[in-house]
Amino acid sequence: MASYLVTGSSRGLGLALVTRLVALPKAEVGTIIATARQDNSPGLKELVNASAGRIELVTMDVTNEASVKQATTLVEQKLHGKGLDYLINNAGVMDWSPTGLEGMDNLNEVFNVNVTASHLVTRAFLPLLRRAEKKAVINISTTLGSIAMAEVYQHMKSPAYKISKAAMNMLTVQYAQQYANDGFTFLAISPGWLRTELGSARADLPVDVGAEKVVDIVQKAGPEQNGKFFDILVPGWEKLSRARYDGEEIPW
Length: 252
Known about the structure:
Strand content: 5-15%
CATH superfamily: NAD(P)-binding Rossmann-like Domain
Number of strands: 7
Oligomer: single chain
Number of domains: 1
CATH class: Alpha Beta
Strand order of the largest sheet: 3-2-1-4-5-6-7
Order of helices and strands: EHEHEHEHEHEHE
């Protein structure tokens, strides 16, 4: 009965991840900590109220170190002395710059949310992760952050997003290397192009499909996946999009 914490749970993929997790048997998924900057998401509140106590809502601004520390204390209380098995760093933002690099005026802001915040959260929750059996940290990334695939996504005018996700990938590897001997698993997952506010209605897949496939990878994660970067597996979609859905490792 593993415990999970998902950041950015108020909408989009984060909300879909919490929805997917609570739908799984209690024998597989126990306590689910859903964090959000504000607790005013109707969809998330409805999930919490219907979860019979399995979902705990914790307010946390991932970019604010004091807020993260306060949330860590609350989560420790809600876990009743047990460790945290899975941390899913999902909170993120995306930019749009029609003129490309010349119009990129928000790199610091995007980097702070997509990279620095993931570090702040991961570092703060390391003590709770150490107490758990799984000790897994999953960073939600994207193939747009792959330097090897940069030419494929040259048309996408989101330079700050690409740069920050490439940095997040390196952050994942740095953590993976430092804590490998302590039994941790750090990995990055690209959920593909999903129909969320961030992904738009033109995206490839419904967000619930992306969430289901991400959870499939998360639940199988172990030391052998430490420091790797995967895409989700969606049968029939392997070669239908610039995004990757073959369940394989993504080149850095």
